[in-house]
Batch of 2 targets.
Target 1
Amino acid sequence: MQKSLSIDPDKCTGCLQCELACSYDNENAFNPAKSRIKIFTFHDKGRFVPYTCTQCYEAWCMHACPVDAITLDKGTGAKIVHDNLCVGCKVCTIACPFGTINYNADTGKVIKCDLCEGEPECAKACPTDAITYVDANWTGLEKMRAWAEKTDAGQASA
Amino acid sequence: MTYVIIGAGPAGVTAADTLRKADPKADIVMIGSEPEPPYSRMAIPYVLTGLIAEEGTYLRKEEGHYDKNAIQYRQGEAESIDPKNKVVKLKGTDDQPYSKLLIATGASPVKPPIDGLDLKGVHHCWTLEDCRNIMKFADKGADVVLMGAGFIGCIIMEALAERGVNLTVVEALDRMVPRMMNEAAGNMVKAWCEKQNVNVHTSTKVTKLEASKDPEDTLVVDLDNGKQIPAHLVVVATGVKSNIDFVDGAGLKTDQGILVDECMRTSVDDIYAAGDCAQGPDFSTGGWAVHAVQPTAVDHGRIAGLNMAGKSAPFKGSLNMNVLDTVGLISASFGKWDGIEGGDHAEVIDTENFKYMRLEFDGDKIIGALSLGRTDQIGVLRGLIQTEIALGPWKERLMENPHLIADAYVACSQQ
């Protein structure tokens, strides 16, 4: 059974441990600006929403890449950016309707969540189980996927 | 069943892969007119900068991808189509019979009617061969004139600037990237480029090119403002046009490109079209348009492939969008960035820091956007537009601060 990140915003306290863990593990810096998971804060509702790539099946980023630099990791289901192939054209960053693949000007490449090869640091770092890594069928990411289909251009009926 | 695809660009290759997945046993033949394996024109500027070798432009990197997927790759140039006998006539080689045909022949650069464009040292930047030719001339310090500051021109500009040439850009219209930017954004791009030591002439036309002997083998570019610019190399990027001349006589309905329906079918049975040669459904207008951009080509290829394989996959249309890096200033445009009559808009201009964001609304939905100097979460603009999110209270917040796009998207989609 493949696993997915499961996100439960009701449990999130906005502590940003996930952003720190992600940026440290992937970019060697405790820098939320370089995190692949983002906590959105809605003060008016006292609500925090962790937000990252859903690893969607027909990934727009992967299809839009002109140089085949984004591929599927068959083990984890993650869509992986290959830095040696990425030319930094940024087409994926406009193709992804979630805004979860972003350009890193320091490296001239794009970055996105790769599920840390099956051991996501954000889930490990989350003290309240707002982010967990569980069997794919049980995740709140279905909600995002449902939105994804609304963006879609035709494969929903295919 | 033999699926034949004319063209080996992103639309053709995506269609071939989609067909193979959907119909594991059918014969698939893809016909390309260039000597290299299928490659991405979009990646050529990165060959010019030296970031990648030519192989880096190839559309599929897996060794033996086409063989492995039983996609027969044939070299040839389509001369005509005979829909009655279901064959494609190829120049100087055997006809190719088809059961279902996809036309994905792309587009070609156009040459404006100006004397001297056939001189030595004048090139388009469209094929890998063009790229090799440009690299011969575009050495550090060489004088280079780029005709056209459209989307493609600007991508090339970035690469030429990185090669350290002395670069002059000449654009006939009143601003840079006129088809993806309004005056405010286009002028900001111009100011930025000038700051990076690129000479930019807008509202200026090249009137003629002449060969020069001082120094030997160079050119003189005459402008309509009376100026003359010396050049070792002139790169022509004044627009592209769909490659559809060869379908004359096949009975396909055409306009700017080949007209297709929401399943990418042409007006002739068993013939489909995709990519830069197809005038496909446009999400924003409900009409039909040639977008000539990578995301649309890939959309087309997938939708055409699915429908050819008998899966019903109608298409709501592609969202026209672009992302551009002009010598370090990154911009993006989505959908109806120029707005609609009676629609609200929100705009913030930060001239000093080269940041700009403009959102266009229809009621409480976003229908288009333009941004400069921002890359973070820029994709949510596509999400906001294409899911037609009713923003409710978030519209007022975006009117006050259009940079809250990601907050608005997350709040509205993750309630």
Note: The two ends of chain A are 24 Å apart (CA to CA).
Target 2
Amino acid sequence: MTRILCLGTAVGTAAALTPSLVAGGHYVVLSIAWVVVAVLLATYATRRALLAKYLVPGTLLLVLFTVAPVLATVQMSTTNYGDGTRTTKEQTVARILANSVVPTPDSPTFNLSVATTGPGGFTFFLVDRATGRAYAGTPDGLAELSAEAVTVTRGFVTAAPGYTLLSAAQVNDAAEQLRDFAVPTEGGAILRRGLREAFEGRAVLRYDPESDTIVDQRSGTRYTVQRQGDREYYVDSGGERLSDQSWRAGVGLENYRRAFTDSRILGGFLRIFGWTVIFAAGSVLLTFAVGLALAGMLNDPRVRGQKWYRSILLLPYAIPGFISILVWSGFFNQEFGLINNLTGLSIDWLGDPFWAKVALLLLNLWLGFPYMFLVATGALQAIPGELKEAAIIDGAGGFTAFRRITFPLLLVAVAPILVASFAFNFNNFNVVELLTHGGPFTPDNPDAGATDILISYTVRLAFGAGGAQFGFAAAIATLLFVITGVLAAAQFRATRSLEEVH
Amino acid sequence: MRLTRLLAVLAATTLLPTAACTSGEPEAPAPASASAAAAAPSGGPARENADLVIWTSEAASRAVTPIAQRFGQENGITVAVQVIAADLAANAITANQAGNGPDILTLPNDFLGGALQNGTVKPLSLGAADLEAYEQSAIASVSRNGQVWALPYGMENLVLYRNTKAVPGAPATVEELVSTGQAAVRKGTVKRALSLPVGQEGDAYHMHPFFTSAGGSLFAMDASGQYDTTKVGIGSPESIAAAKKIAALGEKGSKVLSRSIDGSNAIAQFTAGNAAYLISGPWALADIRKSQLPYDITPIPPFQGGKPAAPFLGVQAFWMLSNAKNPAFAEEFVTKTMNTPEAMTAMYEQDPRPPVRTDVLATVSAQDADMGKLAAGARNATLLPDFPFMAGVWPPLGQAYATIVGGADPASTMTKTGRTIESAVRAK
């Protein structure tokens, strides 16, 4: 029964989504939705394929949310997608042409009423503001109207027999059809401006699809496609661009070549990789050490008011991270900051590369130790007290008992968490971005700061100093993916050996 | 038992990153100009569902909202004015390309370069008769390729705000500014001479008046007064000489400039009465007036025997987007409703900065002396450059200033920065 209900919901959701997806032209999404439904039906509607019943949900989620984004990123890394190349070539040409319409010198201004006689057929009823004469404009041309043909109220045509006048909202809704509507005149064409006004203007540029050139009709200059850097532009014979707008194109492995040959990027990448590992490992070790020490102390039954201490220690964890980070970035200010003021030091916390790294680790310690404290407390309480007792009876001191018995048992429980915490800090964008922005930077490399980790560096490459370079950032992200993959594999090997000891 | 607990903890770990994954950025009172192309890394703003959608800053929204609502009533449509606090330019470019951007937005003139490169905006289509009502320099700042791309409404440039209780008379030179400011510090009326945002990452926009007065330049100017981007001025001997003068004001010099002052606290230092002088723009005026501090506004003084101090001139404007869902309403709103003295006066009243509609500027200057003083600060100003590659120029230049203020060697810093900027300019 439940099964039928769930499957029915899946089919129903897909069916409900279909009309809007078709209307939006999202055929890829549409087919994915139905493939998912088909797979679900094939697995759960029958009594066969028992194993698949357990594997399909996980596999589907893996494909949709992990494999698909990775493939999309790899695909994007072979394009020049970014600022200036966000559009297709057709869109770029259309935009350049549409933007070349200028009002003719001393163009008259008309009061406009848009009228229609049926689907798709429009007429512009125009009243010249200077002379008060009324006209009817169609794609065939402009015709002056006699005073009796239409009703003119306060300078606007308000009624015309045989025509329906469009309201403001209707003009706006019909903007798509009206976009190419123009009343040809000697000097150019009469074009709509907003809802109630028209002017005479003309397009300066003309596109010739045969030769793929754009021609300036005033000067006769011809603009042809030419490659400059990783993109193409329309340029004149002197190499001067018609527009800075280019279009999206495949560039093969160019982005990877750039990542491996540009000394600035490569040098930055290796240094940042080193710091990322130190930052992630350092954060885990520091938070775990402090968390474990506090947990060990508070786990002693002789401590009174355990619950109070524990609650207080969890406070930093209860404050939203964003707020703590912003408050701490104020604490680290050299002149007005709390830390320097309390300690009487004058450390340039955020301006000196070394101290900025220390500040980042300190902040991450503050943010992370309650979590480790929580985990360690839980794990310590799960270790039977008899084991420690037995060790002490066998002659071990308190520290030896901890080192030889408690700690190895504890490690088995918390090792996966340490690995997860390492992975989390490896990509801990928020702390870096909100405290130091990756800085301090040096003027000769404004893309790679002293406290940048790989993810903040990638984000800066994608959206930062050089404008948006999505293609290039996708290539860096792909490389990052490979690196984290290798690291994760190594970590899993390490944890497995730990379990074997147990 | 242990396994379930472990699973619970593991689940908590995996949820942790998602919970912390909303985008957030401290709101700085600096103009959008200096970092036009930096974008929010995760999830931009979403377009509200209305018949006319306007994206704007907090200050401008106060004026735009009532005008837009009246426009909505007159035309029987719904309007939404959304305040986009961070990275409006980059978010709008991305959203417009995806087809869910606003119909209209407000940004300074330096949006033009990136907007044209991405085909984000469409031209104004107003005739010469309409455009004559505006300051020609303001129209020129949003013109390119024979088209006007936005309707300007207000200008902004840096000026010198002075706490008249600490220093009664306006300084004629930077040297006088330093000596009078430090005298006020010695007397105990204030804690520091000057509040000028530097920060750890530097601020090329706010440092520009001192830099130009000391002889530096961003690019050479060609005969027609346009930037000649083939000749980068950073790294030249003049720029090094200018950097030395800035270093002399820095943490190893007279300590007038400090990296501890940044965009988040510069105005507050002045309004709290801690600083004798503040270098900022019209956006600081509302806070200063609220603080009841006695103040005066004068143009930024030059160094003794130096060139005039040239701040950047920015022009705030209304832009229509190329992929607007409601292009006819957008065009009607910008070219008819906003293009009136009443609407432009309303903009000034809610977001006080010198209007660029000449008739409104005349009326407003007669009532509000500060507007004339702000406009006077623009006398030596140069237009805020709008080249898309400026996104690769502002950060290293700002960083260079911050490093120099911190005490680094001006000559080698400027030379290195010049090389970085050359490569950023050449790449495009």
Note: Chain A touches chain B through 81 residues (CB under 8 Å).
